[in-house]
Structure formats: C-alpha cells, structure tokens
Amino acid sequence: MTTESPHGKRALAPTLSSVPTPRSGVPTTGFGVSAINTRPELDRPVEEPERRSRAVLVAGALVAAAAVVAAVVAFRIMVPSIPSAEAAGASVAREEVRERPGSVVMFGQVHTYGDGLEIAVNPPQRYEPSGNATGVEGGVPVKMQVVVTNRTDAAFRPNTVQVSATSAGQPGTAIWDPDQGIALTGPDVSIPAGASLHFNLAFTVADPGDVTVELTPALFGYGPTVVQR
C-alpha cells in the first residue's frame, strides 16, 4: 500500500530532456568547451604601432638635423675662412698705403709724404685763451700754426689730423678754444689738389721753450711726423 504526501505527489528532481552536445543537434553556443574557447576578442588599437613608428621617424630626423648642425659649426671653428681675392687685394693696398713714412723735422720745415701731401708746423707761441677754453690748467698755453698743402691727386680733409705734444718730458694737454677758432684737429673742409690751408692748434705745456709735436695726417696711409726745435 502506498501512501501519498498530504501535499500531493512527491516532487521529482528536474531533468534535462537533452544536454546540448555537438551530436544532439542543439546549438552549443554558450555552453561546454566551445563556450570557453569562443570568447569575444577584445578590440586592439590598430593605430598604436603607426603612432610609434611616426614618433621614431620624427626623433630620428631631429637627431640627424642636430648632427648636421654640429658638424657645420665644428667645421667653421676648425677651418678658418679664406679671404676673397678682393679682400686680400684691399689688405695689400692698405699695407702699401701705410708705407708713406713720416720724418723728424724742425718747426717751420716742410715734410712731404710719398703721395705729395705736405705739412709744416710753425714754432709755438704763447697766447691768452678765451673764457670758454678747456684744457688750460696746469701749465702755459701755447698755440702753433699748421700748414697743409695738398699736392696729391685727390682732395684731402684735415679733420683727420692727429696731433700730440710733449714738453720737458711731460705730455701736453690739448686746448679746445672755439671762441678763437682752435679745435682739437683740423677743420672739416676739403682741400682740393694743389691748394693749401692753415689752422691753429694749442696745448698747455710745462715749458714753452721745450716743445715737441707729433703730427699724423690721417689714421691710415701716413706715418707720424715729429716736429721739434
């Protein structure tokens, strides 16, 4: 005799009518071994290798450019520049121009340079500077007349004249006295070929009876001429 549960029939464990297998004809997607091996592949960035390649190429180009610049700089440092024929000719011409030497002459005596330029300095004389004159302290003011005669083939400007004086072994002080037309050099005028010009220069000296003057007509092309008693 069988007894039944007061709640009805005894429940049986659920069973699968069919297990998905390759042979059962039931799709096996999502089940079993196939499900384990068929994971969806992750999306991989395709552009990452291309970006790296571009970065490598750019870095290589920069390194190559830096190497070229360094090589050029090193070459210029180690190899001096070769002067052009014109520069070399100008240098030779300048050296030839500098070969016009000066001389040692007496006050009032003329010295003639190789190109025909003549200069003379007359003996210094005492003078009374104006109230606006500068460089008059610490000695005796004297002035002297400079005569320039241009016997060259071109005009000459005496504002390139450089003059210094010594007295009793001491350097004289150049006087600038515009009220009396005395400057530190010659006037800024043009002396045509064949013409002459005279102007005054002045110095404060220790001994008016012992004065030596050194005069150079221009910075380039002329040597100094020493004028003394």
From TrEMBL:
- TM segment ranges: 55-79
Q: Which UniProt keywords apply?
A: Membrane, Transmembrane, Transmembrane helix
Reading the lineage from the top rank, the first entry is: Bacteria
Write out the ranges of the annotated region (Disordered): 1-48
Query: What is the protein's name according to its record?
Result: DUF4352 domain-containing protein
